[in-house]
């Protein structure tokens, strides 16, 4: 069953007719599981549709505890066990209805792979995308320039990984509180921000783009970092770091003409979304898959082929796939101390906060900025510039400098032992290899 059977021809009228006659069917069941809401989605198969379904669940901040994926010709079926952020079943009828309508709508079968669910260009804000080399104080400098140019940051997300940084920043005109439309002003914004990014020998890789919104922020950040090749190794990895990194294995099963991917990592919200973003962007089709979580550990397994119908067929491709999946998991992985700041929103607020962090010797590893109802809720993952854990005295100093702002330290969860379900690797691998002769697969990276 090659990927040629996957419906993916935007101009194919027959394919459009099939999709119209067979809209997605969604069943939401709160009785099938004792501890999760079960969501089953049946739909016409199309490259990227699995990611689009998961994106709807992710945007609602739902936790996927288990998932089963299976495709058969032009049709596929997904089953997700989900909970809210507190581990409870979904009881809110408004949310359940939203899930039903969103997954059954045509928005989940989008013609463009680079598009996102329910995202349309906005005239409410201007979107600025930045990629470049990470360094201390980078976000502070970006925010200072935007403040000087009378641009108000209403929402932003910043990721750093492997010496690279990417950001999607939504700004408005400080006076009109709407998108910036003046071409000359936009040109000035682009020029000054690009100057900040082009400070080192890797400046040729610096990129920036200004648009009227219309992109899904997290989806776009994955694409930006992937395009920036953040998955390429930089320096040697310490032994301790190796043990904490995600474990990725890619095997061949020639008798079934699949490549098999197995991933083990620390569990966290949006992990499934992050993995599928990279597989989709690398043009791989997931034909079958299983996701299981337990005791803070996640196990994912996928049967895949490239969109051209072939499994992974070279060592170089295999190695790159492993690197890219590791990067996809690590970009959002907890690194450093997480701080949440809540205060009244005002012009220049983000510039002041990031300056205070920089002056106290902190590096921002990841940031999520949002404003709603006149309130700013900003979350930062920070570490000292040396990479060491943040000293408590520095937090006290920041609290004194931020005054009336509410600064909360989010404690990182303590590591726990893997559950029996996810740690019994031999049993899982044995089931995985049924139907594949021993000589038909190659284990590239084994579990520790």
From TrEMBL:
**Pfam families this protein is in?**
ACT
CDD domains given in the database record: ACT_ACR_3
Question: What UniProt keywords are attached to this protein's entry?
Answer: Repeat
Highest taxon of source: Eukaryota
Q: Which residues form the ACT domain?
A: 38-115, 127-208, 338-414
Which Gene Ontology molecular-function terms are recorded?
A: amino acid binding
On whether Nucleus is a keyword of this UniProt record, the answer is no
Please give the function described in this protein's UniProt entry.
Binds amino acids.
Instruction: Specify the protein name.
Output: ACT domain-containing protein ACR
Q: Which organism is it from?
A: Phoenix dactylifera (Date palm)
| Phylogenetic placement of the source organism | Eukaryota, Viridiplantae, Streptophyta, Embryophyta, Tracheophyta
């Amino acid at each position: 069953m090659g990927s040629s059977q996957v419906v993916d021809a935007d101009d194919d009228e027959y394919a459009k007719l099939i999709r119209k006659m067979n809209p997605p069917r969604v069943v939401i069941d709160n009785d099938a599981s004792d501890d999760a809401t079960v969501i089953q989605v049946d739909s016409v198969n199309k490259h990227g549709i699995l990611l689009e379904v998961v994106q709807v669940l992710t945007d609602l901040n739902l936790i996927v505890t288990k998932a089963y994926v299976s495709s058969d010709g032009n049709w596929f079926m997904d089953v997700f066990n989900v909970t809210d952020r507190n581990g409870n079943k979904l009881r809110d009828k408004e949310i359940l209805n939203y899930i039903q309508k969103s997954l059954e709508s045509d928005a989940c079968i989008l013609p463009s792979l680079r598009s996102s669910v329910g995202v349309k260009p906005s005239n409410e804000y201007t979107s600025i995308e930045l990629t470049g080399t990470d360094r201390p104080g980078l976000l502070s400098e970006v925010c200072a320039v935007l403040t000087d140019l009378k641009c108000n940051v209403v929402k932003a997300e910043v990721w750093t990984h492997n010496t690279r940084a990417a950001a999607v920043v939504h700004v408005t005109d400080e006076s009109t509180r709407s998108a910036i439309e003046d071409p000359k002003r936009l040109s000035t914004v682009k020029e000054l921000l690009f100057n900040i990014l082009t400070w080192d020998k890797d400046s040729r890789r610096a990129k920036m783009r200004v648009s009227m919104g219309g992109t899904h922020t997290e989806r776009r950040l994955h694409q930006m970092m992937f395009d920036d090749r953040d998955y390429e190794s930089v320096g040697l990895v310490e032994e301790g770091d190796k043990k904490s990194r995600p474990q990725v294995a890619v095997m061949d099963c020639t008798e079934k003409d699949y490549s098999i991917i197995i991933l083990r990592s620390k569990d966290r919200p949006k992990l499934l979304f992050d993995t599928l973003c990279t597989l989709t962007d690398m043009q791989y089709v997931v034909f079958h898959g299983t996701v299981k979580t337990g005791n803070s550990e996640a196990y994912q397994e996928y049967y895949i082929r490239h969109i051209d119908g072939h499994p992974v067929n070279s060592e170089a491709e295999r190695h790159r796939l492993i690197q890219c999946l590791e990067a996809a998991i690590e970009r959002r992985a907890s690194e450093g101390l997480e701080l949440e700041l809540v205060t009244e929103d005002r012009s220049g607020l983000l510039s002041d906060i990031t300056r205070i962090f920089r002056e106290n010797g902190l590096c921002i590893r990841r940031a999520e900025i949002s404003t709603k109802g006149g309130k700013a809720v900003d979350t930062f993952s920070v570490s000292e510039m040396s990479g060491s854990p943040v000293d408590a005295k520095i937090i006290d100093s920041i609290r004194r400098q931020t005054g009336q702002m509410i600064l909360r330290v989010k404690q990182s969860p303590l590591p726990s032992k893997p559950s029996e379900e996810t740690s019994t690797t031999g049993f899982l691998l044995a089931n995985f290899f049924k139907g594949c002769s021993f000589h038909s697969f190659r284990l590239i990276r084994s579990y520790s």
